[in-house]
Amino acid sequence: MKSTPGRRRKARAPRRTVRTRFAALTAAALVVCAAAAGYLVLIQTDGQASAPSRGKGGSVAQSPPQPRREPEWDGKPKILGDGSTSYTGPQKGQLKAVPLEPGEKPPQFVVFSWDGALEGDDRLFSHYRDMAKDYDAHMTFFLTGIYLLPKSKQDLYHPPQHPVGSAAISYPTDEHIRTTLTQLAAAYQDGNEIGTHFNGHFCGAKGGADWSVEEWKSEIDQFYDFVEKWRTNTGDKDTPALPFDFRKEVTGGRAPCLEGQPNLLKAMKSYGWRYDASSPGDFQIWPSKKNGIWDFPLQMLPYPGGNYQGLSMDFNFLYNQSHGETKGDPAKYVAWEQQTVDSYMAGFNRVYYGSRAPLFIGNHFEDWNGGIYMKAVDQVIKKVCAKKGVKCVSFKELADWLDVQKPETLQRLRGLDPAQSPDWSTVVP
């Protein structure tokens, strides 16, 4: 497969398989057997998934943190550093986070997130930014740091455990750096979140799972360095400064291939980050914290055509449908697209009419199998974001909302099975 600038060269196979059993929590739910491997998860089931008991990493917040105070702003943009970024005041249009009233049904939160966030020739970044505006939605765009670093300056990147300048993805063209900067600025001004997908996208041996806490910190520091010095590194004097302070706005990310979360969580704390989306998968249950940081995993959704649960990401549908081949049988594209839509909608309906646990959908800007996974997401956005009681938000907005809820309310919410529709007066007294 020919490498496209700024794209992952090849879809990677799962690195390992782990089997775990969870006991059902309700009489209606049956025992579930999970097989999780990197991006690929299939769950053999005979019915609805039930909420597992929280593991060692899960925790219940003891008290909601105080609301963050925005700095005083005089209404004038403040250029930061070499002019790559600026402060233009508090981000506009954000969800107002308020505690649930007694007996109130929670909103149905849906988070669409994107790994990489490059505006390439396919213009998918701008496409989904436009869709978000059209459907009154906010999304999370996880930027890969080297997408703002010219290939001519690749020696500035010192990846952990790998040669200087190396990466598992291609460096961007100069034009793609400019178009990506334009989309990042517009996405932020539209109310979307910019998070991090780190830098070199290393997986497997010497990837994130093998990195120490200090190596993760090095990767994070370099991410900040690349995005805060793109003007120096590119020599571009014409593109406007990004209208936000990365040190302030980046509050979470997703690790490549969902690897290395234990040490990454330890590294995150020193940066004041509030959530991580790198967990390799969990049931559709209300989030909890790991090491004081909100854990937003990909989720196990009903897989049409078989008694399976599959992770809520395009990569997993690719493996389930065409065994990882990015150009599978074209005769099956229509059926595979519908299967993907049906799985997302089955997961949505299970919680929308049940526990109201947030739905997390993760994707890449890609054209696998004729672009069917992008077309599937287009359909899902149109179907869910305009529904009554639904809020399509960013991960940061969801973290804000969770932070102001009563700890005892969150604990009750986490005890619900995904499809369980409770008497809300008993959950939110």
Automatic annotation (TrEMBL):
Region annotated Disordered sits at 48-100
Ranges in coiled-coil conformation: none
Tell me the Gene Ontology biological-process terms attached to this UniProt entry. Answer: carbohydrate metabolic process
Basic and acidic residues: compositionally biased ranges: 67-79
The record, for InterPro entries, names: CE4, Glyco_hydro/deAcase_b/a-brl
Protein's recorded name = Lipoprotein
Q: Tell me the organism.
A: Streptomyces noursei (Streptomyces albulus)
